[in-house]
Amino acid sequence: xxxxxxxxxxxMFIFHDLLKIQDRGDLPGFEDxxxxxxxxxxxxxxxxxxxxxQPLNQSGDDEGAVFENGVVRxxxxxxxxxxxxxxxxxxxxxxxxxxxxAGLPPVVTFAFAEMGNxxxxxxxxxxxxxxxxxxALAATGDDWMKEHVVPKMAHGxxxxxxxxTEPHCGTDLKLMKxxxxxxxxxxxxxxxxxxxxxxxxxxxxxxxxxxVIAKIPDENGKLADDLSTVNFFMVPKVMVDPExxxxxxxxxxxxxxxxxKMGIKAQATCVLNFDEATAYRLGPKPQPKSADTxxxxxxxxxxxxxxxxxxxxxxxxxxxxxxxAIGDVAYQNGxxxxxxxLAGRALSGAKNPDGAADPIIVHPDVRRMLLASRSFxxxxxxxxxxxSLMFTEARASKDEKAREFAEDMGQLMTPIIKGYFTDKxxxxxxxxxxxxxxxGYVKDHGMEQFVRDARINQVYEGANGVQALDLVGRxxxxxxxxxxxxxxxxxxxxxxxxxxxxxxxxxxxxxxAGVGDLQHAALWLAExxxxxxxxxxxxxxxxxxxxxxxxxxFMWAQMxxxxxxKLDAGEGDPEFYKRKLVLAKFWMEREMxxxxxxxxxxxxxxxxxxxxxxxxx
Length: 617
Hints:
By secondary structure, this protein is of the alpha+beta class. Helix content is 55%, strand content 11%.
């Protein structure tokens, strides 16, 4: 049976030693974030995740969500855990105080999200998606929705979903066929089918609020073949009285089936059929753009997509944190097993001479896998928390330059966090399963579930290849390449300021080499992609991976400096800080050198990739 221990001490190190959030009273929500306060929040959340959510993870996987006679049921214990989750206020950590929430900033709420997903990803997705849905509704909805719908979602009485994908249409949203026809009273009748809808139906709450994108047909009833008439809609499972907020009749939303999935089986992933369901448009109504005088239809952007894009970006950040979470819980169990399992003798001589064999933790390759997993987990956790802080700075800092930098970092890092983190999280789960040998392949230890659950994170909310293309095609080129240049300058400033530190110099030299490789790849891209866009597509995945390696290296260099200062001052647990230094060295020695090969690969170009005719594959 797998176990989980929430990394409270590591979060405390990141919050108060690295990011020093206790000194950020200039930002909303940070005023009371003393060390005592954050430790109390983290320890309370850890206790709930460890004692309530984690024990349901394996049983939930065994039982799965069930669809019978038109009704979806979650596994045993989930409904009771959800009620306790909401009663304790864990779903309202980031909700405004006016809604009964704690008003805490993303840096804290994402930390709790990691613990919840590590303990039980299938469960954590229900409230996680609800939070994203009600935040989008609060930003774009009518006053009656903010009064009657958003508070019930924030309190957990109702849940929410995000409905984008259709059977014939995933990332390419302009292929959507779901349509919304305006009615005389200003509502819409929405019809179509959406698939892969997480939390699409269940028996935990009385209502589910679907956030749906659909096209508005023209006066002839035809749908545009672009995004010009796409809009964002609220579609409740059960109708809501705009005057009182009371529930009414069932809306035209039904479940066609639930997906039979590789993992996250306790999460009800539904096919939803909308049959002239009453829908409420959110945000301004887009209009189709007319053709120009040349007769060619211009590309269009939909103002109705803004709310959904905000929700999608939050979800992508959340999925990246799922990558950290699964990597962490898998690593923890792998480390426990490696210290207990006896097999073979250490190459340097027996370490357990009174036993029949040594524990497998003595073997270098077992250590390689565990160190690779842990160095990723702790480095990515630090980066995710830093970016979470950037989200608040971008929104609320009083310093214009700080807001600009924070906005750039948030935009630049989101596809990296979603893509690179989920790739490495799956890799960490896979390596931790490998530590178990054959025992990892059977269900008893729970390791194969972590691998199965981790695999979806690379796929949904935009497959990782799409994230890589978004990075090189949009995020790195926006505003003349301002964001990557700001990142490079920020890293270089740290390197230059600490070159005189003998303890840090080997780490900084490695980081400098990685930054140089990444800059070289970015320059190659800037020179070649404008001539042939396929060059960007061919190089994108390698560049995203390089960015992830370098960004985590930057975090490790900063954490190493902080840990060494704590050791020199004789503060805290010396073993904690010594471990940080070893993990930093591992990342710089074993992971950072990969940027050199990735630089070569990214410059190989698109020719070989595009050479074969499709029929020859």
